[in-house]
Amino acid sequence: MSTASSNSQPRSEFGTFLTFYFLLLAGAIASFWWIQGIGHELKAPAATGASITTGVSKSSDVNVVAHVLATLAAVIAMGNLFAWVLKRFHQPAVIGEVIAGIVLGPSILGACFPAAMHFLIPDSSTDPHELVVSSLKTIAQLGVVLYMFIVGLELNLQKVGRQAKAAIAISHASIVVPFVLGALIALWLYPMLSTSDVPFTSFALFLGVAMSITAFPILARILTDQRLDQTDLGVIALSCAATDDVTAWCLLAFVVGVAKAQIGDAVIVAVATVTFIALMFLVARPLLLRWIAWAELRGLDQRTTPVLLIALLCASLATEAIGIHAVFGAFLLGAIIPHDSRVSKELSQKLHDVVTIMLLPAFFAITGMNTRIGLINGFDSWLICGAIILVATVGKFGGTILAARFMGIDWRTSAALGILMNTRGLMELIVLNIGLSLGVISPKLFAMMVIMALVTTIATAPILRKLVSGGEPQSHPLHAGG
Amino acid sequence: MSTASSNSQPRSEFGTFLTFYFLLLAGAIASFWWIQGIGHELKAPAATGASITTGVSKSSDVNVVAHVLATLAAVIAMGNLFAWVLKRFHQPAVIGEVIAGIVLGPSILGACFPAAMHFLIPDSSTDPHELVVSSLKTIAQLGVVLYMFIVGLELNLQKVGRQAKAAIAISHASIVVPFVLGALIALWLYPMLSTSDVPFTSFALFLGVAMSITAFPILARILTDQRLDQTDLGVIALSCAATDDVTAWCLLAFVVGVAKAQIGDAVIVAVATVTFIALMFLVARPLLLRWIAWAELRGLDQRTTPVLLIALLCASLATEAIGIHAVFGAFLLGAIIPHDSRVSKELSQKLHDVVTIMLLPAFFAITGMNTRIGLINGFDSWLICGAIILVATVGKFGGTILAARFMGIDWRTSAALGILMNTRGLMELIVLNIGLSLGVISPKLFAMMVIMALVTTIATAPILRKLVSGGEPQSHPLHAGG
């Protein structure tokens, strides 16, 4: 073998190589020419038609993969561009991606260049394009399931344990107050924005839950960005948000169950949900802890990740089968895996980038497709939209401050906590999409609620900065940036 | 705030907490009760029917996400089980996953428990299930595109440069000989297994390319497993396989172009393909090298991965638009990114696990669904299948030995090289699925070729072990394992 690379007569070896190569190619071309000459005379049986081709050709009328790749490319590119611009205004990246989805959807691109939008995010009403939308939706769902699993993994429930009382009091107050206010505003909105096939109870419950969401990941990101994550405020905020997430998603699971079930089934769904949560904490958690200890002792190998991903898929399927959403099982499984185990850290690190960069853009595309800002037309509609933002903010902010003051926390920290808990981000969009796909909220209300989610999330970082810094003008990023 | 966690009177604080919590919950329940009482009297406008619900309800007749999650869970679980068993026989994990796909498809599960199979991998002919199959296909395609990108990233083209002559001579001979033999056997197979709507040229070209694939990733895995990757044999084998991959996939791009194009268009596709390859090497590569140097100097940040993934999606879209397959663009982009740059290593590490564990199982499910072993019925069919395996092996093995001996490599190393180049694995399955979806090969021939890919891949590791160890009985893993 060494002769091949260290020959003393390189020229003659090169000659050998060239001769060999020439003969090889010439022989190949001549052979294929000869074979093709014979082959052209051959007759194959007549095509039997349907059976072979239909399964394939129907989907190849529309190149589903090309549409999906183009949509992902457009959302990722535009989302990163917006995120890069918004970073100067200290906004979390997710805001840029949500706006990119809306811009590429019917609200902006669809209004200006319908053809361009239909290429990216085709109209699902035309039959072959339904395949494209369905594929995008599945990728979005897979992304959301994995994302909620990561959110669960990153929750530190043990840390909450240390100040459980304050965290539970504050977070539950920050759920209950907006929940009740949301149900209250439902009295006003139901006759205007709902239809007779949606029962008032489902509508009010859903609106209540949607108002009471806090986005743990964005809250954590904002705290880290402003270097507050190790302060008293940061620690209590993270604990509250973690408790809030677990509570609000359990509540959502129940609400979805009620909305989906017939009246008699609601009890079954509720019982199944409670049983599932109990099983996860009382049976799955001890088993998982033992398995993780064993796996880490033995050293993590290439079987660890598949086992956990199979568990994730099974937990998602279980909650989907119960009738509450697949994301709930994924989130709960993540939450019961200890936050600081090596398994959890490695898994979260492995999943994070592909999920957030590659899969979630499909979710932003679907959300953008569903958000028709044009439906909010006229002064009255924008008034309702403003009222929704007001109720959501007052509920979250008021509930948090009330409880925080009651638990003996000072005014400024309480106010900062209130602002932080008001960030809704991606989690709110996941909830809203569930509501829309169940038909509990109309496309018009969906658009209003998306705007509410955007506004409350965008408001968080600048106001927090003002509160914490005491409001000196030189630290105003909003003014410095533009 | 410190009062919340370090109070000197824990009992009274707990009392405060309980009182607060009780009032909160009682207030919430009472309020909701009251609101619901009023809300029940409210009348919402009558449902307008179609517009809101149809877009949603059609897909919710079949729970696409549940089907997809169940299929992924089943393939991942069974694939890992088989891979774990086959590891004792020194087989690469991919063999287990391919077999899992086939077992869960119509060949085994479908024959025994059709209902179970239809739940996992539904029949695409029934309309609503088309959405499930289409979604699985899209996830599979996304997985394959990302996987081929990783394969490209892991190719070390600079290493090939050092022994370019031997690598080119051996790898091209190992392509040309099976290519010509594949075209030759096409003369026999065309009248039996093709139909009149497939031109002989497309059929023969495709069969030729399908015979000449070598799976670089599996070859690399086998060499690492047997600790041969740093030996002379390992280095030359990796160089040959890398050259083989680039050549065979360029050839495949051309063949797919010819098969898809009308006669006049074939020239346009060929010109576009050559132009694309030239642009990638002459324009994109220098730009990328400069960008990578800049990015690594500045320190990789959260913008690096999105930029490369957008480039990946654009390259895939470009080749899809030309009419050659999306995987080709992904592979070529990976190949032009320097193998040992930090960007490449981090990206490959980030993508690897999610892609192979989570997304590729969708590809194995689709491949299993397409593989109907039952179509190979009767002695004649199995004879053809055996002939295909023989031709593929003789072509790959013979071509490699011929060229290796000609380049002055000793007999034993030449034979080991021949065996290694005969491993086809996942890459062959990707090629076969492209052929099937284009309609160039029939489902029956597809099943035969899948068996060929499995047999040649399974044979590699044990025979190599025998050749390299010289055949001492104590090192026979096959006997030791079972």
CATH architectural category of chain A: Up-down Bundle
What's the overall average pLDDT of chain A, rounded? 83
Specify Rg of chain A, calculated over alpha carbons. Answer: 28 Å
Instruction: Give the helix proportion of chain A (percent range).
Output: over 70%
Biggest beta-sheet profile of chain A: none
Oligomerization state: homodimer
Number of DSSP strands of chain A? 0
Which pair of chains forms the biggest interface, and how many residues does each contribute?
A-B, 129 and 128 residues
Provide the structure class of chain A: mainly alpha
Ends apart, CA distance between termini of chain A: 66 Å
Cα shape of chain A: globular
CATH class of chain A: Mainly Alpha
Total domains of chain A: 1
CATH topology of chain A: Na+/H+ antiporter like fold
Q: Which regions of chain A have little confidence, pLDDT < 50, spanning 5+ residues?
A: 1-10, 49-60, 471-482
Beta-strand residue percentage of chain A = under 5%
- Helices of chain A, by number, come to 22
